[in-house]
Amino acid sequence: MAEEELPGVLVLDIGGTHGVLENVAALLKKHFHLITMKEFIENKKEMSKKIQSVFVFECRPTIDQELLESLPNLKVIGNSGVGVDHLDLKMIANFGVKVTNTPHAVADPTADIGMALMLASARRLVEGNVLNFPGS
């Protein structure tokens, strides 16, 4: 399928400090034509019709009424994190747009860190490290 035939997905940026990670962008490119916020702002009239999805990565881009009004073909907002408390679900639903997220994406790593902290506390690893290596 040619890139122009793929549905458009709006992302804040690719790479950099706040952009979608390069490996995530490569995966998205298999299924979507990626449109950065800069490209969208520079050519709203043309780009707004192509965008059918917004990929929210680390709470960006901000989903507000102005953005939703400028995307007449928007069908879904995909959030790359667990929660959606940064999204106004009622407002988004009023535009007929669905919201998805990844509820179990960090369940195992969170459990691993919780266990590590409990073991470190029970075994006093932090105190032991300071006693064995003063000044660290």
From TrEMBL:
It holds the Pfam family 2-Hacid_dh. Residues 21-113 form the D-isomer specific 2-hydroxyacid dehydrogenase catalytic domain. One of its GO terms (molecular function) is NAD binding. The keyword Oxidoreductase applies. One of its GO terms (cellular component) is cytosol. Gene3D superfamilies: NAD(P)-binding Rossmann-like Domain. Keywords: Oxidoreductase. SUPFAM superfamilies: Formate/glycerate dehydrogenase catalytic domain-like. PANTHER family: 2-HYDROXYACID DEHYDROGENASE-RELATED, 2-KETOGLUCONATE REDUCTASE. This is HPPR reductase. The gene is Hppr.
